[in-house]
Amino acid sequence: MTFIDRHTSGVFIIAATPFTEAGAVDEASIDSLTDFYLGCGVTGMTILGIMGEANKLTAEEARGVASRILRRVDGRIPVVVGVSSPGLDNLKSLSQFAMDQGAAGVMVAPTPGPAVEDRVRGYFHQVCDALGPDVPICLQDFPQTTGVQISTATILTLTRDCPQIVMLKHEDCPGLAKVSAVRNGSATADTPRISILCGNGGLYLPQELARGADGAMTGFAYPEMLVEVVRTHQAGDADRAEDIFDAYLPILRYEQQPGYGLAVRKAVLKHRGAIACSRTRAPGPKLTATDEAELMRLIARTEANVKELSHGS
């Protein structure tokens, strides 16, 4: 069993949850989507996150999705399971289920409420106590969605105080200075190293890597770009990594539209044959005919840009 740890790096793709036109979980598309991600060369997967519409799944559905993906992956790459919940009992129950099914760790976001430092620290101490010492935790820092700001000082304090917290999913925005601060403040005499994987669609990935991030944890519908950018940057060719990134930038930016990007991502995944239906669960965004035409043009231009880049290499 491979667990996430303080040196985990690469690309952990955040998986969508496919639904049928009727709104049911599409198990066949779960299989094809998992195979698609594996074929793109991702280092790991993160499931039941915000992109996975976890808040729209029943407890039974969430367990079914996690179990099916973990069986399909079959240990080939580590899988992190999002378990955030308003109640610690529910969080603990899903965490235990996920780990028993073969998960590599769990992802936890702070509960909504006042962004008071001692409240945030107290919450994660309770989570660690509830889960025990053997469950690796990825701390999700996504204030745009949770409404909770977590300071660098609190992240570093939790890194020192809670051995289970081994990874930061960084999605604060603007957040480049925070990446630098966390990286420079960890792996010191008194603070252990923490793995940093960054989200926000990968919109700032080259700069995040330059500031010490270990990779990406996001759901961009062209995972092969994330994989190649991280691989090339880690190999020491930052300019080539940015050239690859730039070829995909228009469609990456288009995917990042607040409240709308999930529908775009699912439409791209359907276009690429990864899922059968692009439906999001209600309440959720839906593309218009104009949106679809606009997206198809962006896809065509992206494919042309990538082809030109490949020929020029």
TrEMBL record:
SMART domains: DHDPS. Keywords: Lyase. GO terms for molecular function: 4-hydroxy-tetrahydrodipicolinate synthase activity. One of its GO terms (cellular component) is cytosol. InterPro entries: Aldolase_TIM, DapA-like. It holds the Pfam family DHDPS. Pyruvate binds at residue 217. Belongs to the DapA family. PANTHER family: 4-HYDROXY-2-OXOGLUTARATE ALDOLASE, MITOCHONDRIAL, DIHYDRODIPICOLINATE SYNTHASE. This is Dihydrodipicolinate synthase family protein. It comes from Jiella pacifica. The lineage of its organism: Bacteria, Pseudomonadati, Pseudomonadota, Alphaproteobacteria, Hyphomicrobiales.
